[in-house]
User: Which sequence fits this backbone?
């Protein structure tokens, strides 16, 4: 987070955010991505001859349609920088199409699918899509590119929050948090007993990470501080000089066989969808804990539920689900499942950073500057 962003956060936490403070903008330095990782020049999407012709909306500022409602301070930042219209109804894209205004950019998040059908129906004035998320699997990037749309996302700025949530899920599953909370909130706790709700400590156990990207690396650093051994599997093997290189496993099956805790931190692709199935779970060590912070469709729900019921998987910590918010009902009845409502990036720090990086992306794109977080 930039210095200005931290000042805003401090004011929010102490209830001292005024209109002027809320208009402070974030700054993304070309060549750097929030989260402190260096972005090489080849990853900066820049075309010095590209200069966006903005819609004739009577305002020199880009016209933005906020199809997803954001936290107040971020919405006010958008309004202070752009000509911004916030969605008011329950069908954002229909409202966009029916508007008598022209918009240059649609800002939305995971709650809105932007497939070919939706992109094709966008008003002709729309020149860019800005998703308030790191993931882009809800967008048909190929079709967006065919139509000539720029696409921006929010890398780096939410990685720490998601990594902390992964540790929370690991601890919640290992320490039987679901049962513990239910016991004490039901007011039926009989008092301390040496036999009560015995779980596992993470120290000394092996964490296997499927997808050692930015978030996976940040989880690894935190888990290592807890005394865990780190293994991982990626599409490509690491250089021998890379951190945790000795923990690389070339196959998911090999990773599962050696892991006490298996963390899903990879993107949803044709290769990874429903990768957690009955066949893979047969390779699990006794008392495996499965944690998913990536995408719900990486898990075949019936297979995981069956494994949780018969003890092949000891516990699960889940923050994402297939078909959310309509999730597999069996999870509600399993005491060894610690579930959260997709809150991985739900921190003030992440929300402010996500808004800031999109504001800078749109501002730079509109005047033909390079954009670090341009996907297409």
Assistant:
């Amino acid at each position: 987070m930039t210095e200005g962003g931290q000042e805003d956060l401090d004011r929010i936490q102490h209830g001292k955010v005024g209109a002027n403070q809320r208009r402070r903008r974030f700054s993304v330095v070309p060549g750097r991505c929030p989260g402190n990782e260096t972005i090489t020049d080849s990853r900066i999407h820049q075309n010095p001859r590209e200069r966006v012709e903005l819609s004739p909306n009577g305002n020199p500022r880009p016209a933005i349609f906020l199809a997803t409602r954001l936290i107040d301070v971020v919405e006010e930042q958008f309004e202070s920088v752009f000509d911004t219209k916030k969605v008011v109804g329950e069908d954002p894209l229909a409202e966009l199409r029916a508007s008598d205004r022209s918009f240059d950019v649609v800002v939305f998040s995971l709650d809105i699918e932007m497939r070919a059908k939706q992109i094709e129906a966008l008003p002709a004035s729309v020149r860019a899509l800005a998703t308030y998320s790191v993931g882009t699997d809800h967008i048909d990037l190929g079709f967006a590119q065919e139509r000539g749309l720029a696409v921006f996302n929010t890398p780096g700025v939410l990685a720490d929050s998601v990594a902390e949530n992964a540790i929370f899920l690991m601890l919640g599953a290992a320490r039987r948090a679901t049962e513990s909370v239910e016991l004490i909130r039901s007011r039926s706790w009989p008092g301390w007993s040496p036999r009560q709700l015995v779980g596992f400590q993470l120290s000394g156990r092996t964490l296997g990470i499927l997808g050692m990207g930015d978030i996976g690396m940040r989880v690894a650093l935190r888990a290592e501080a807890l005394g865990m051994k780190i293994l991982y599997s990626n599409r490509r093997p690491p250089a021998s000089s890379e951190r945790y290189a000795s923990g690389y496993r070339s196959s998911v099956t090999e990773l599962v066989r050696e892991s006490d805790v298996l963390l899903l931190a990879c993107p949803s692709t044709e290769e990874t969808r429903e990768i957690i199935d009955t066949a893979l779970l047969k390779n699990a060590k006794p008392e495996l804990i499965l944690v998913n912070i990536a995408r719900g469709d990486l898990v075949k729900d019936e297979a995981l539920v069956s494994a949780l019921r018969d003890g092949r998987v000891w516990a699960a910590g889940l923050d994402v689900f297939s078909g959310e918010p309509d999730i597999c009902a069996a999870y509600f009845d399993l005491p060894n499942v610690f579930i959260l409502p997709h809150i991985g990036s739900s921190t003030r720090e992440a929300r402010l950073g996500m808004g800031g990086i999109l504001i800078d992306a749109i501002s730079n794109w509109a005047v033909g500057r390079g954009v670090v977080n341009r996907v297409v």
Notes: The chain has 13 helices and 13 strands. The longest strand covers residues 313-318. The chain has a mean pLDDT of 88.
